[in-house]
Amino acid sequence: MPVYASRAWITRNYKGLQDKIQLVPIDLWKRPAWYKEKVYPENKVPALEHNNVVIGDSLDVVKYIDNNFEGPSLLPNDPAKREFVEELLAYTDKFVGAVYARLRGGGDAWI
């Protein structure tokens, strides 16, 4: 499972939503045409469709699940701690993106 998709999977499980959010396995190397046409035009994973709204960025999916479904909150209530978590997530996003770029042969990736 790609690291970005695993964020959504972990969030779903942490909040106890296994019966409310269905996972649809997608072959990343042979994505079906319907996925891009009907689900997420960016053709990236994960994507979440809920109440006729499609969310596609993994952090946006995580935040949407946290804000729109019952279960324990992922973020602290304290504004300073919440801001720190947001900064940490932004940093890890850049880091993981740079690692993927480097693995794909991008020589100028920041790590």
Automatic annotation (TrEMBL):
<feature type="domain" description="GST N-terminal">
    <location>
        <begin position="1"/>
        <end position="73"/>
    </location>
</feature>
<dbReference type="GO" id="GO:0004364">
    <property type="term" value="F:glutathione transferase activity"/>
</dbReference>
<dbReference type="InterPro" id="IPR004045">
    <property type="entry name" value="Glutathione_S-Trfase_N"/>
</dbReference>
<dbReference type="InterPro" id="IPR044629">
    <property type="entry name" value="GSTL1/2/3"/>
</dbReference>
<dbReference type="Pfam" id="PF13417">
    <property type="entry name" value="GST_N_3"/>
</dbReference>
<dbReference type="InterPro" id="IPR036249">
    <property type="entry name" value="Thioredoxin-like_sf"/>
</dbReference>
<protein>
    <recommendedName>
        <fullName>GST N-terminal domain-containing protein</fullName>
    </recommendedName>
</protein>
